[in-house]
Amino acid sequence: MTKVKSYKDLLIWQKGIEIVKETYLVCKEIPNEELYGLQNQIKRSSVSISSNIAEGWGRNYTKNYIQFLKYSRGSLLELETQIIIAKELDFISTESFNKI
């Protein structure tokens, strides 16, 4: 079994980074008039997922880490909601919706 030495070793953090990359690609489909609206919120939510995992890891205290994992989960659910809204408004394709 490999010892986790950094938050970067966590599979969940790595998957969060993949979500960010995919989200930024999908955001290219969203109309420019949503640049400071829904598109911005989607990007911020996606970045927040891995960021909260990293920040919690850096706190070096289990209780704080767990709290930041909860924040990360909240960001993930926020992103899911925003992607659903983007799909419902036909801002993104079904194919892109299914990627995230």
Folded structure, characterized:
- By secondary structure, the chain is an all-alpha fold.
- It has a single domain (11-99), classed as 23S rRNA-intervening sequence (de novo design (two linked rop proteins)), CATH 1.20.1440.60.
- The chain has four helices and no strands.
- It has helices at 11-27, 38-58, 62-88, 94-99.
- Helix 1 packs antiparallel against helix 2 and helix 2 packs antiparallel against helix 3.
- The protein is elongated.
- The mean pLDDT is 95.
Comma- or semicolon-separated keywords:
4 helices; 100 residues
Distance from N terminus to C terminus (CA atoms, Å) equals: 30 Å
**For the report, how would you describe the main beta sheet?**
none
Under the CATH scheme, which architecture would be assigned? Up-down Bundle
The dominant shape is: elongated
Radius of gyration: 15 Å
Classification by helices and strands: mainly alpha
Number of domains: 1
Structure described in brief:
With 100 residues, the chain is mainly α. Helices cover 71% and strands 0% of the residues. The protein has helices at 11-27, 38-58, 62-88, 94-99.
Mind sketching the topology for me?
Layout: H1 11-27, H2 38-58, H3 62-88, H4 94-99
